Amino acid sequence: MYATTYHRASSLADAVRLRGSSEEAKYVSGGMTLIPTMKQRLAAPSDLVDLRHVAELKGISVNGRHVRIGAGTTHYEVATSAEIKAVCPALCHLAAHIGDPHVRHMGTLGGSIANNDPAADYPAAMLGLGAVIVTNAREIPADAFFTGLFETALEEDEIVVAVTFDAPERAGYSKFANPASRYAMTGVFVARRADGGVRVAVTGAGADGVFRHEGLEAALAGSWTPEAAAGVAVDPSGLLSDLHGSAEYRANLVTVMAKRAVAAS
Amino acid sequence: MSRVAMTVNGRKVSRECEDRTLLVHFLRDHLSLTGTHVGCDTSQCGACVVYMDGRAVKSCTILAAQAAGSEILTIEGLAAGGDLHPVQAAFKANHGLQCGFCTPGMVMSAVDMINRYGADLDEKTVRENLEGNICRCTGYHNIVKAILAAAQEMGAAGRQAAE
Fold first, then answer.
1. Which SUPFAM superfamilies match (chain A) (predicted)?
2. At the N or C end, where does chain A have fewer CB atoms within 10 A?
3. Domain match, B92 and B68 both
4. How far is Cα A201 from Cα A221, in angstroms, rounded to an integer?
5. Boundaries of domain holding B123
């Protein structure tokens, strides 16, 4: 790791100020991606601004079916939240299968979506739930937030404060984990609203990161069954092809994971 | 360089170190607590697992500066005086180790999962919760046995204490 200077922010305003007063600072929360990336010298921020002690980023609140999760909430806290489980158990299931227990004790929702790793789980949930990403400056719909591989709509000094969504009537998530890294080789989040609206979001498979699949959405809006998902052929163009699997292999995985996600919903 | 202060195994400590110092190196090189191991150094193997404020974390993936002000428990702080912690005793009794390199992390992870699940731990849950700990010797069977035995014993002890 290259040398860096550590700062601990006490509030959102303090974090923005600290970041602005240094050359090439990065925000860090759980650090479960950033610290390993710095160790590999793939990132070399001059300064780190630690958000882990910022109270404004904490807390889960559920009012009726409206859910708000602070960006600093760890995967462990989401996985074990009885409040979230009561209205959206699929999100608890997803959080309970990120990384391993030690990573889940540190890693945060805000950090995961701000990083937008193409194989991360949370981007699929945010897109599938039609969540709103609340920052210190504005509110961004998930559809406009995830813009490409490791790219988001966030400005340089913008901080994800929370995410909000209305829990759908039914939701499910299923991923095919890479046998070594356990990252999603393909993960599919499906959600159906009381008005019949369906969203299907796919992570791990897209060459440009997380995306919605219209064909699966249409099929599942017609019939919310694994069989309906099974009838959808996914076009491999635009999908990732690497040593772990070809685009054609991932295309098939999208259909299979969609089937399983519906079955689990 | 910054002065980093925290509580390690109940003792207040403070050392000068570079901001990029990892918690595991702070423990090993600055405090000479070498029970916590560096295995893969890429957050996968779990040989570096310690407790930070009551939760098991990977100390190779946390800066000492991030841990400043927190309560750290390492494998050295687990035994009460000369008596092995029930998890340590169970690893010994069930031959839950061979070369021993992964053992400190395994034991810390085991204590963490027993704290979270209590005596209700079953084999499937133990195996799922060992996702972040790699052992290259044992094939995990005796580690799982040891954790289940310790969970039973600690659960029984907890019940006795409550009665």
1. CO dehydrogenase flavoprotein C-terminal domain-like, FAD-binding/transporter-associated domain-like
2. N
3. no
4. 14
5. 86-158
Q: What is the pLDDT of residue A149?
A: 95
Helix (H) or strand (E) holding B8: strand B2-8
pLDDT of residue B158: 59
In chain A, where are the structural domains located? 5-50, 55-166, 170-264
Contact B62 A3 (CB under 8 A): no
Residues of B in Cβ contact (< 8 Å) with A105: 55-57
Q: Which of B47, B77, B107 is the last residue of a domain?
A: B77
The two three-digit tokens of residue B2, written as one number? 């910054």
Q: What is the mean pLDDT of residues A52-77?
A: 98
Band (B160; pLDDT cuts 50, 70, 90): low
CA atoms within 13 A on the CB side of B19: 17
Using a CB-CB cut-off of 8 Å, the residues of chain B touching A183 are none
Of the listed ranges A119-123, A206-210, A222-226, B152-156, the one predicted with least confidence: B152-156
CATH topology of domain A170-264: Enolase-like; domain 1 (3.30.390)
Fold of A5-50: 3.30.43
Distance CA A175, CA A188 (A): 6
- With a cut of 70, say whether residue A76 has pLDDT above it: yes
| Confidence at residue A193, expressed as pLDDT on a 0 to 100 scale | 96
Whether A34 and B61 have beta carbons less than 8 Å apart is answered as no
pLDDT level of residue B81 (50, 70, 90 thresholds): confident
C-alpha A202: how far from chain center: 11
**Record: contact B61-A36, CB cut-off 8 A:** yes
Query: What's the CATH fold of domain A55-166?
Result: 3.30.465
Whether B100 and B123 map to the same domain: the answer is yes
Q: Hey, which residues 34-73 in chain A have their CB within 8 Å of chain B?
A: 35-36, 38-39, 48, 50, 52
The answer to whether residues B65 and B126 belong to one domain is no
H/E stretch holding A94 reads helix A89-95
Q: What angle do CA B102, B104, B108 make, to 5 degrees?
A: 115
